[in-house]
Design brief:
- It is a single chain.
- This protein folds into two domains: 7-24 and 47-286, Jelly Rolls (Sandwich); 299-516, Jelly Rolls (Sandwich), CATH 2.60.120.200.
- Residues 1-24 have low confidence and may be disordered.
- It has helices spanning 10-16, 401-404; strands at residues 29-31, 58-60, 78-79, 92-93, 98-101, 104-111, 126-133, 140-147, 154-162, 167-176, 185-194, 202-209, 219-225, 229-234, 237-243, 252-257, 274-286, 299-304, 317-318, 322-324, 327-329, 334-336, 342-349, 352-355, 357-359, 365-366, 369-376, 383-390, 407-414, 420-427, 435-442, 450-457, 462-466, 469-474, 483-491, 505-516.
- Strand 29 (407-414) and strand 30 form a beta hairpin.
- The protein contains two helices and 36 strands.
- It is mainly beta.
- The strands form three sheets. The protein has a 17-stranded mixed sheet that branches.
Length: 517
């Protein structure tokens, strides 16, 4: 949709490009006509609106998920512009029109000119906005809650990527919020510009008409994209699908607003500035489809998805029952919520505090591999959560962690640290010979939502990951012996004053998985 090489033929694309591509080769498709009927009710914010029962087995995909909390765009995930395109003339993509406030991403169109605007390339009079993901994604379920701008400027959510060999695009929506005749039209499109076997641009466009103006309120827009089909959703109900004959390329995720003089018309001065607001973007992949940061050569060898009503005794034991640090470990603080989550809880018990620890010692112990858990972190100070590996012979013999093993803290999280997380290594026991290496890293947005914590353990080093991104690597104290996993909540002054905490306070665990070559 977006690059200078084809912007001048956009209207032709929408109206007639299908005639240039043989009808027999067009993908099969379906388009809703008429009202939506009954739409699904939101039960869980952790699942797509269209699949609140999670029949498809969706797992959150953090790299393309953002709740837009805080006061600035997450620079780890997003560009405040389109790095490969200046905008559709005459409007110029201007980073100053991108902001985050009130839990939303805002893209603004204005009648203004800025000094950087290249007028010799046809940019003048208007500035608009674009946000592009720094990563690529292929397949998944993508959902936004958004309100289109109320002007002739477009509000768009789309995917694309261009290489010398391949250039494809999926437009989730293009809305002309106050363009006459387009106020209620939900425009959806897929484009093929080039593939290794095709050089002719063609598209498949569909329009569904809503019962109210789309710029009058927030709506939930979804896209389900897999190898077989691409499906569009409006407020949780399907409105279109297209057979996936060509869209198998990893793409960037994009939001933008453009001037489209020949389609929506130029914006009127009295409607500017106008704002396109996105409350969230969420992404999921089907269980087993989420790519590992360590590559496809690793295969799943052990996992617990925490289905059912009680802890799987064939995989876990309650660990360290009794006093530990400033609390008491008890079985009652370990539960499953019936929705696929393990729940470890810290709570008050009279003048004492009860908390939780489980481990796989004697049930699953291994050497080397990729270890990952997905968790929703605790919210109160005074206790810390951890996912760690432990050796049954730590410090024996001294000076030889290969044989004795190492405590490997994949993550330790203290709520008082906000968006910081700790990675730590301990070897040669816990006494006078104790050795340590560690790193504390900042991960924007860590304090909210679900996150994955991973460890790649090889015979030469440890590599730590948060949300699929490497955060630390170390060749210190590398263990070559079998170790077991532990999930824990612990109370201690390191985490702050537990007396100030609002308890009970849970740690949720979605899964624990182990992969090996």
């Amino acid at each position: 949709m977006r690059q200078v090489t084809w912007r001048k033929i956009f209207v032709v694309v929408l109206g007639t490009v299908g005639l240039c591509h043989a009808q027999a080769n067009r993908p099969e498709s379906w388009l809703r006509s008429g009202e939506l009927g009954t739409v699904p009710a939101r039960v869980s914010e952790e699942l797509p609106l269209s699949d609140q029962g999670n029949e498809a087995g969706w797992v959150a995909y953090e790299p393309m998920t953002d709740e837009f909390e805080g006061t600035r765009l997450d620079a780890e995930k997003w560009w405040p512009r389109n790095p490969g395109w200046l905008g559709r003339q005459p409007a110029y993509f201007w980073p100053g029109n991108v902001s985050v406030s009130d839990g939303k991403l805002h893209l603004v169109m204005r009648r203004e000119e800025v000094s950087e605007m290249p007028k010799d390339k046809g940019y003048h009079t208007y500035t608009s906005a674009a946000v592009q993901s720094k990563g690529l994604v292929k397949y998944g379920y993508f959902e936004v809650k958004a309100r289109a701008m109320k002007s002739h400027g477009s509000s768009s959510f789309w995917f694309y990527h261009s290489t010398p060999e391949e250039w494809t695009e999926i437009d989730v929506f293009e809305i002309g919020g106050k363009s006459p005749g387009f106020e209620r039209k939900y425009n959806m499109n897929v484009h093929v510009f080039r593939t290794p076997t095709e050089n002719e641009h063609w598209s498949s466009h569909g329009v569904w008409t809503a019962s109210t103006d789309l710029a009058d309120g927030y709506h939930v827009y979804g896209l389900e994209w897999d190898e077989e089909r691409i499906t569009w959703y409006f407020d949780g109900a399907p409105v279109r699908w297209v057979e996936n004959t060509h869209w198998h390329q990893a793409l960037t995720l994009n939001f933008d607003s453009e001037t489209m003089p020949d389609w929506f018309g130029l914006p009127k001065d009295e409607d500017l500035p106008s704002t396109y607001s996105i409350e969230y973007v969420r992404a999921w992949k089907r269980q087993g489809e989420t790519p590992l940061p360590v590559g496809e050569e690793y295969e799943l060898v052990w996992s617990d998805e925490f289905e059912g009503d009680e802890l799987d005794a064939s995989k876990w034991d309650y660990r360290g029952l009794g006093p530990r640090r400033d609390a008491i470990n008890v079985k009652e603080t370990v539960s499953l919520d019936g929705e696929g989550h393990l729940v470890l809880t810290t709570k008050r018990a009279g003048d004492a505090y009860h908390t939780a620890m489980i481990g796989t010692q004697g049930k699953f112990e291994t050497t080397f591999g990729y270890f990952e858990c997905r968790v929703k972190l605790q919210e109160q100070i005074g206790h810390w959560s951890a996912f760690w590996l432990q050796s049954p012979s730590l410090g024996e013999p001294l000076g030889d962690p290969q044989k004795a093993g190492t405590e490997i803290d994949i993550f330790e999280y203290l709520r008082k640290d906000g968006d910081r997380v700790h990675h730590n290594l301990h070897w040669d026991g816990y006494g006078e010979h104790h050795q340590h290496a560690g790193k504390t890293v900042t991960v924007p947005g860590l304090a909210k939502g679900w996150h994955t914590f991973g460890l790649l353990w090889t015979d030469s080093e440890y590599v730590f990951y948060v949300d699929g991104q490497e955060t630390w690597r170390s060749d210190k104290g590398v263990s070559h012996r079998d170790e077991y996993m532990i999930l824990s909540l612990e109370v201690g002054k390191w985490a702050g004053d537990i007396a100030e905490a609002k308890l009970p306070d849970p740690l949720y665990v979605d899964y624990v998985r182990v992969y090996q070559k």
